[in-house]
Amino acid sequence: MNGNETFDQLAKFTRETALLESISYNLEWDERTYMPTGGRAYRADQVTYLAGMTHRRRTDPQMGDWIAELQQSELASDRHSDAGATIHRIGRDFERACKLPQDLVEALSRATVVGQQRWEDARKADDFAAFLPALEEIIRLKIESAERLADGGNLYDALLDEYEEDARSEQLTEVFRDLRSELVPLVAAIRDSKTQPNTDLLRRNFPVDAQRAFCKQAAEAVGFDFTRGRLDETSHPFCTSLGPSDCRILTRYDAHWFPGALYGTLHEAGHGIYDQGLRGDQFGLPPGTYVSLGIHESQSRMWENMVGRSLPFCQHFYGELQRTFPEALSDFDVNAFHFAVNTVEPSLIRVEADEVTYNLHIIIRFELEQALISGDLKPKDLPDAWNQKYQEYLGITPPNNADGVLQDVHWSAGLLGYFPTYTLGNLIAAQLFDAAGEALGDLDAMFGKGEFTPLRSWLNENIHRHGRVYSPNELVQRATGKPITSQPLVGYLKQKFGALYNL
């Protein structure tokens, strides 16, 4: 068999594995949206069975033979070609998958399905003790996975690498320390400013049906394609793609807190625009797969904050907002609304945190995760540790576990090592936004006229269409001419909030 024939065999096999995996994603989406609670136990059986099938394919010895042959072929000589990237990335994934036995993969799959079910019930009941046994099992299995993946190295890095290739906790700790040193005094200066927004207007009555309609309109305006996706509701917003033309985004609504739904929708639409911008003809292969969660998060945070919370965006949509919610907004102008949706105030809920304090939420979770994986922190002690860090970093203490340690779905889904990608996403978003502005001109003027296509097209050309052809660091370097750095984000935050709060 020549190299091209072997490559075709590998690609076909990998696409079929992606097809199987997409069925599992469909089941998970269904569970988080419309599935009756009585179906939970059997759904865990279904997802576990599919996880086992997928893992057998990912570790099939035939794949190892194909990869070994192709790595010596001319096709692999250029790692940044579609074929070369496919061979290199699939080889990397195969090596990682082979370190995990099938029984461990299946056990973790079942534990996370059950864990998410227990978490949802526990959060509603504010009952951490009811969730604790499921969490303990997930942590135990994640530590076992990390031990097998790390080959004697740092356990947390082994988990982090699943979401952000080549990221290391030591480097992140340094970046987060530098960020914290910039953010804490900025938060203090904002707190002490005599100029403060009126956020009461955001707590007025915003009928949920009207929110649904407006959120869909906003997502469509920035570029989410509803012929290849849909918007639904869930307890914790997320985005998932079930195929090259089937992207699902989900948000949640509160009749007396409008920003949660609007900016949750824009955030998930940003994820969806990335997925919809990947090359459909490469779906299931590395060139048609997102490169990392840090890059993915950069897209969602950019559309949510740098676009959605900008004054020009608010100006463009404010007339429609007032027509949609006349009772709530008729007596406030756009500047008051813009200031209100950009209020900076230490808060309990990460997904609704402002841009300045948001990364402090991530630092807390990053530190707690490392302690859980190292064994320095036991799952039963999480609520106290969580509350202590919130008091230390944000000056507030959660009144209950539902708005504290139980607020995020990630640990119940086994996603340890995921949280740091949120801050990486903020760093990358600011850097890409600066580069896009340099390339395209006055973005604010475009947003004010409702012109979002130029930014979306620039991102598609420089980020989306490359898939995993480049590593995250290589992709940012190519798009911006610089390695990932914190300075654009710090500069953006100081300029924006300095102006708003008259600092």
UniProtKB/TrEMBL annotation:
A Gene Ontology BP annotation from the UniProt entry:
proteolysis
GO MF entries: metal ion binding; metallocarboxypeptidase activity
Q: Where does Zn(2+) bind?
A: 267, 271, 297
The record's keywords, sorted A to Z, are: Carboxypeptidase, Hydrolase, Metal-binding, Metalloprotease, Protease, Zinc
Q: Could you tell me which InterPro entries the record lists for this protein?
A: Peptidase_M32_Taq (IPR001333)
Nucleus: present as a keyword of the record?
no
User: For this protein, what is the EC number?
Assistant: 3.4.17.19
Per its record, the protein catalyses: Release of a C-terminal amino acid with broad specificity, except for -Pro
Which branch of life, at top level? Bacteria
Could you name the active-site residues? 268 (proton donor/acceptor)
Establish whether keyword Metal-binding is in the entry.
yes
State the needed cofactors, names only. Answer: Zn(2+)
Give me the comment on cofactor binding.
Binds 1 zinc ion per subunit.
What start-end ranges are recorded for coiled-coil regions in this protein? none
Instruction: Enumerate the Gene3D superfamilies for this protein.
Output: 1.10.1370.30
**Per its UniProt record, what Pfam families does this chain match?**
Peptidase_M32
| Function field | Broad specificity carboxypetidase that releases amino acids sequentially from the C-terminus, including neutral, aromatic, polar and basic residues.
Q: Which family does it belong to?
A: Belongs to the peptidase M32 family.
PANTHER family named among the record's database cross-references: CARBOXYPEPTIDASE 1 (PTHR34217:SF1), METAL-DEPENDENT CARBOXYPEPTIDASE (PTHR34217)
Q: Any idea what this protein is called?
A: Metal-dependent carboxypeptidase
Organism source for this protein? Rosistilla ulvae
Q: What is the lineage of its organism?
A: Bacteria, Pseudomonadati, Planctomycetota, Planctomycetia, Pirellulales
